[in-house]
Amino acid sequence: MGKRGLPRLTESQFRAQVIRLAMLFGWQVCHFRPARTARGWRTAIQGHAGAPDIIAARNGRVVGAELKVGNNKPTEDQVLWLHHWGADGYLWYPSDWQQIEGVFSGRK
To answer: What are phi and psi of 87, to 5 degrees?
Structure first.
């Protein structure tokens, strides 16, 4: 159980909420889903690892957001991607919901 006796969100549940919110505000959204292989979970990519969980675009603005829950921390590769993303690169936890709403509503 999380704070206030509420069940904790999984990262998958949190991601689904963020995607729904972005789409509600008219953003194009992309998430690359990993697949289970004989060697564990893998996401097929070409290039550098660590790309943000969510890529969203609207009206010339492109946002990259790495999503984490609980005590999970971003990897060095994920931090580097967010650094390169600049002002629209975000590391979000469920507690950042006000900021998430602000970004997708256009208030931030």
So the answer is: -60, -25
Output the tens digit of pLDDT for each of the chain's 108 residues.
455 555 688 999 999 999 999 999 999 999 988 778 888 877 777 788 899 999 999 999 999 999 999 999 999 999 999 999 999 999 999 999 999 999 999 987
Residue 18 has φ and ψ, to the nearest 5°, of: -65, -45
| Residues 62 and 55 sit within 8 Å (Cβ to Cβ) | yes
- Separation CA 60–CA 28 (nearest Å): 11
What are the distances in angstroms from CA 28 to CA 3, 19, 20, 64, 77? Answer: 32, 9, 11, 12, 24
- In 3D space, the residue among 59, 67, 64 whose CA is nearest the CA of residue 87 turns out to be 64
Q: In this structure, how many other beta carbons lie within 10 angstroms of the beta carbon of residue 92?
A: 21
